Structures are given as structure tokens and as C-alpha cells.
Amino acid sequence: MATQSSIQSGSRRDAGFAAKPSLTIKRRLNAAPSKIYAAWTDPEKLAAWFGPAKVREGSLQAETNPRIGGRYRISFTSTDGEYFQVGGIYRDIVPNELLVMSWAWHSTPERESLLTISLKPDGAGTLLTLQHEQFFDEAARDGHEKGWTELLGKLEHFLT
């Protein structure tokens, strides 16, 4: 169970670039970093917890190649019949500690963003920090903030 959850939304400025919306969510999970890492990188485990509440049962599929330069893809059909697919490339990986990956929905590939999952041991559990950067606009950030909050709840349930 998560004992702490915080959400921060904001923008990051890089030299020479306009600010792009980002978000950071921190959650303490009662599971070892290795178990959480496996939930993000093993396609069968990922398919067991990922996706919003409106996923049509049995439609979620995940493919992962967790290595720098490897690709991942997650797809599902919603209960109202709409198809969704998101994917990207792993940019950095430290097993049981860090996943950095590009993130783009198949419907808007030009809106690629950057997702970082950090795992830090915290007593008998793990502090998970999810940072999602370089959103196209605030509406995209806000939608992802809602989605990530829901998904982290599903991950927590999966881990118990």
C-alpha cells in the first residue's frame, strides 16, 4: 500500500528552449525495487496491471525489450471500442533502479515526451518517482497526471 503520494506539476526550462509542461509523482510502495522493476519491464506483468479502468478485458498487450535502444509498446482497446497504442525507446536503464524512455501515442507520434521511473529502497518498500517531461501542452500533462495517478494505484494493487 502506498503510504505517501505527492503530485507536482510544473515546467522545466532548458537553455534556449521554451518551457514545456512536466509532472512528478512520488509514491511509496510496499514491494522491493526488483519486484517493481519487473512489473515495468516484463511484458506479462506489465499487461496484468497497466491501462486505464476503461480497458476492454483481455485486450491489453505489452512488448518490451528493456535495454538501451530497445523498444517497448503497449496497446489496448477501450470498453467503447477505441484502440490505443503507446510506445517508445529505452534511453537509459539501471536494473532495479532506473528506467528512462521516450513516450509517444500512436495517434500523435510528433508529441514525444520523456518518462523516467526511479526506484529507491525505503525500509521494507520502495520510493517510486515518476517524472514525465516535455509534454506538448498543459492539457496533455493534465491528462497524463490523471492517468498516471490511476495507474500507480493499479500497480500498487498488482504488487500486493
- Number of H/I helices: 3
Percentage beta strand: 35-45%
| Major beta sheet, strand line-up | 1-2-8-7-6-5-4-3
Envelope shape: globular
* Overall tally of structural domains: 1
Record keyword descriptors for this entry.
single chain; 160 residues; alpha+beta; eight-stranded antiparallel sheet; Alpha-D-Glucose-1,6-Bisphosphate, Chain A, domain 4; 3 helices
Secondary structure layout plus pairing:
Layout: E1 5-12, E2 20-29, H1 33-41, H2 43-49, E3 61-64, E4 71-77, E5 83-94, E6 98-105, E7 113-122, E8 125-133, H3 138-159
Antiparallel strand pairs: 1-2, 2-8, 3-4, 4-5, 5-6, 6-7, 7-8
What does this molecule look like?
This protein is of the alpha+beta class and 160 residues long. It has a single domain, classed as Alpha-D-Glucose-1,6-Bisphosphate, Chain A, domain 4 (2-Layer Sandwich), CATH 3.30.530.20. Helix content is 24%, strand content 42%. The protein has helices at 33-41, 43-49, 138-159; strands at 5-12, 20-29, 61-64, 71-77, 83-94, 98-105, 113-122, 125-133. The protein has an eight-stranded antiparallel β-sheet with strand order 1-2-8-7-6-5-4-3. Helix 1 (33-41) crosses helix 2. The longest helix is centred in the last third of the chain and has 22 residues, at 138-159. The termini are close together.
